[in-house]
């Protein structure tokens, strides 16, 4: 296989070259301590950045643990590591100490890699680099095709990676995922440098590498698909109790919650509030294939919600310390609504001028918070300090502070009145 670094950039109209096999073939799967020790030694002796990827079994297993870890480094080749046989990769992490990791969509893989003892000191995210560089499609296959002129195999990203043994076509796909990551990184670094955006990207990468683990979601059951149909507190309580019962079962069985009971079934039960197992079994998602033991479990959750005192029922909306939904601003605080409208327009125009997504220029949540509760003196220095306190990076602060400072002086149109409803 020809190394992409030895080829000329692809012509604009040239068809992508199919990338069918890894350069050195498919490596054996590393699944025991002895084989892992050999991989550690090889990667410690390698040079340059290390390409890293992980495959999970989303939709099949409970949680987001890794079921395959792929790495590639100059001088070491490619390694495919089975985390089931090698659940502790801290020795590999130590061997790569100080080495830049190259990942695509890093925030997706870093949590499951951290569970294995692997945390990068520095990284380069090729997906985020593509966003900052203004590429319209930033999936790995699209980026490799647009930038390097190669077509990656598709079709195995959503398979059950907990399958053992892993089929050879899946292993080939996994090895190819890291085959050109470093080549892609080098090309994107040059593109970002040409556009004057490399420092922006490096600040973003450093922020990702230094970020603490994400906090557990509050009331994760509120993310049940179709939840918007459920309005009464008693019904919301049914959603909560069924979701929690499903989660316990899924965790015990190590199965994706959606395979235990669908969100649609949970919402149907909440809306109908079935009085007994027979009524429950008639609802969509609780059909004849479901055993009596399972039906009893779900009915018990419904009955628990039905029997809760009013004070223990969940509120219709989750507790939230930030601004209210923007659609409510015009009624609650027309001045804040005017500030937000001006800020959104200014950020949108600048993002278009810079050819990057608005959310990468500055997060919508940051804009909302500054516009809802602006600093007292509304000076550029105060606005910059507010942005920094909300996690904005220096490059974002430099570019957006003038826009937001001006937007904070916007006033509502004549005739708009402030509602008597106090801000929340």
Describe this structure in words.
The protein is of the alpha/beta class. 48% of the residues lie in helices and 9% in strands. It has 19 helices and eight strands. Strands 2-5-4-3-6-7 form a six-stranded mixed beta sheet, with helices on both faces. A two-stranded parallel sheet has the order 1-8. The longest helix is centred in the middle third of the chain and has 21 residues, at 233-253.
Task: Strand order, main sheet: write it out.
Answer: 2-5-4-3-6-7
Mean pLDDT: 93
Q: Helix share of residues?
A: 40-55%
End-to-end Cα distance, whole Å, is: 61 Å
Which characteristics define this entry?
disordered C terminus, alpha/beta, flat, six-stranded mixed sheet, 8 strands, 424 residues
Q: In summary, what is this structure?
A:
This protein has 19 helices and eight strands.
Question: What is the element layout, followed by pairings?
Answer:
Elements: E1 17-18, E2 29-30, H1 33-45, E3 47-56, E4 66-74, E5 77-81, H2 90-95, E6 100-103, H3 106-115, E7 122-125, H4 126-132, H5 140-148, E8 150-151, H6 168-179, H7 181-195, H8 198-210, H9 233-253, H10 257-260, H11 263-272, H12 277-281, H13 292-307, H14 329-332, H15 334-354, H16 358-361, H17 364-372, H18 380-389, H19 394-407
Parallel strand pairs: 1-8, 2-5, 3-6, 6-7
Antiparallel strand pairs: 3-4, 4-5
